[in-house]
Backbone:
């Protein structure tokens, strides 16, 4: 049973456009929702994270939108750049980030010049 | 920011040998470390969770005698792939967490293991 469903599997966006990746979770005990960015041959790097007590969090060009009632959250990348081309993983955990993370299957983003 | 160092970054060895991978937290004490395995174009699969000074907790289907984990100090955990075979070839990634407060996991850069 996959507890965090991520879509789309892949995404192509033109430079300057908005990239949107969606995730849905099932376990209502989750209380921490991070997004990770992974480049080929590297480990995942924490991009931005949110807790269910807020509906949106913005850091630079990256925004998480969170809908607790729908059990969904999404990552928006504004003004997408070729350097943003990477694989993005959403995740969820209980008891903050130091507990086991449940990952989505990932989205390969390609930002065309 | 917090840094987790993983070594080696790449290793190629013959079938039947054992390989040790190190994961170090460089600027914080990691109460908990996690070991993941990642196949090409797939997500991270948690193999085991290790807490300093105690035995690791393995996920279902992961052979504890095959993948030996030691977390002897607050800054170092090791994963030893024993008697490695070609099917053990994969990308292995560790992460570390202080285990307190609002501190997320920080990941190492992974180890590409290739068994010939």
Residues:
């Amino acid at each position: 049973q996959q507890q965090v469903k991520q879509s789309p599997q892949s995404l192509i966006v033109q430079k300057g456009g908005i990239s949107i990746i969606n995730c849905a979770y099932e376990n209502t005990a989750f209380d921490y929702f991070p997004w990770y960015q992974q480049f080929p041959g590297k480990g995942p790097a924490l991009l931005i994270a949110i807790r269910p007590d807020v509906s949106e969090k913005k850091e630079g060009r990256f925004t998480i939108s969170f809908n607790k009632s729908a059990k969904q959250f999404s990552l928006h990348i504004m003004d997408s750049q070729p350097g943003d081309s990477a694989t993005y993983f959403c995740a969820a955990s209980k008891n903050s980030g130091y507990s086991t993370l449940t990952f989505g299957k990932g989205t390969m983003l390609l930002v065309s010049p | 920011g917090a840094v987790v160092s993983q070594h080696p970054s790449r290793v190629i060895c013959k079938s039947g040998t054992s390989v040790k991978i190190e994961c170090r937290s460089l600027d914080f004490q990691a109460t908990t470390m996690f070991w993941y395995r990642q196949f090409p174009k797939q997500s991270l699969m948690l193999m085991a969770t290790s807490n300093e000074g105690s035995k690791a907790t393995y996920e279902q289907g992961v052979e504890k005698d095959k993948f030996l984990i030691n977390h002897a100090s607050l800054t170092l955990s090791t994963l030893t792939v024993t008697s490695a075979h070609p099917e053990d070839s994969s990308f292995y990634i560790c992460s570390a967490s202080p285990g307190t407060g609002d501190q997320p996991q920080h990941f190492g850069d992974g180890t590409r293991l290739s068994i010939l």
Summary: Chain B has a mean pLDDT of 91. The two ends of chain B are 37 Å apart (CA to CA). The interface with chain A takes residues 4, 6, 31-32, 34, 41-44, 46, 49, 93, 95, 97-110, 112 of chain B (CB under 8 Å).
